[in-house]
Amino acid sequence: MSRIVRPRVFVTRQLPGEALGRLGGEVDLRVWEGELPPSRNELLAEAAHAEGLVTLLTDRVDAELLARAPGLRAVSNVAVGYDNIDVRACTDRRIPVGNTPGVLTETTADFAFALLMGLSRRVAEADAFVRAGKWRTWSPTLLLGTDIHGATLGIVGLGAIGAAVARRARGFGMRVLYVSRQPRKDLEAELGARRVDKRTLLAESDVVSLHVPLSAETRHWLGRAELAAMKPGALLVNTARGGVVDQDALIEALREGRLGGAALDVMDPEPLPADSPLMTLPNVLLAPHIASASHATRGRMASMAVDNLLAALEGRRPPHCVNPELFP
Ligand code: NAP
């Protein structure tokens, strides 16, 4: 009797929902049970025996890992961003790489807007104030914030999430500017968004919200010069990737009061070191990279990642593939 050998798959963390159960029915599955990601050495050791890898943005898939994983045939990232993966090196090895676009768009936009509102109206500070027993009376000068209605929002990268944030902004009566390499005429008509150059966006926006992927081109997109070009007192929201911002320059701008505040779901590095000045600056709102973290969305991301992986292991094009040139 012939024995069916199932492909070995390593998943770098427990995932919510049904997806891993489904994957377990198809492959020889090993799931990392730790609360923290596998260390580099642990990841390399697991990858060495794997034909498929399901990775998170905490797991670096690079040329070194590929060299040590001769049997690897598929990589599936549980994220829309894939800056943790050397896609070119995977393509050279003819390894398809999957990601999870679309399913997290609205959830991430919700959170970007939550950060925007939380920062402008000082929600976290207000909560801490009440809990600390500091609330003595109603005061006309207590915890004054910035209005969002009527303000100008600058969207950096009018892709799926940027557009979803712009839609929310329209509902709040904001004026929307954007920068993107390609004009989005369809969205300009739908959202009343205006494409401007970088300098205009920085000079005119009361809030700048970042939605570009991290790449060689976008690393430190918001650097010292760009921060200096921002409207005095403007707010920054980053739900993209920490590396899109020069964090040292950001800290300087916040300390000097040139920037009104920053709300950051993503930082550089992650997790943020305990001694980072960002931890103590009052005009900063911090979150531990949770913009896509709703029960429903994380389940859908896991399911999509499993679909991508299974397709690649069967030699089919993953439904969401970042190196589709492997399937001409
Ligand atoms: P997307 O639909 O691909 O949108 C990215 C947008 O960025 C596109 O409109 C692209 O347009 C623009 N862009 C790319 N390079 C650019 C550049 N150099 N200058 C200006 N614009 C540029 O992706 P998405 O689904 O909206 O996700 C965006 C990013 O958000 C992801 O890559 C990920 O890093 C991040 N993210 C974070 C979380 C979180 O948990 N915090 C969750 C989801 C996503 P052009 O090509 O026309 O320029």
From TrEMBL:
Belongs to the D-isomer specific 2-hydroxyacid dehydrogenase family. Keywords: Oxidoreductase. Gene3D superfamilies: NAD(P)-binding Rossmann-like Domain. It holds the Pfam family 2-Hacid_dh. It comes from the Bacteria. GO terms for molecular function: glyoxylate reductase (NADPH) activity; hydroxypyruvate reductase [NAD(P)H] activity; NAD binding. This is D-glycerate dehydrogenase. Residues 10-323 form the D-isomer specific 2-hydroxyacid dehydrogenase catalytic domain. One of its GO terms (cellular component) is cytosol. It comes from Pyxidicoccus fallax. Coiled coil: none annotated. SUPFAM superfamilies: Formate/glycerate dehydrogenase catalytic domain-like, NAD(P)-binding Rossmann-fold domains. Residues 113-291 form the D-isomer specific 2-hydroxyacid dehydrogenase NAD-binding domain. Transmembrane segments: none annotated. Signal peptide: none annotated.
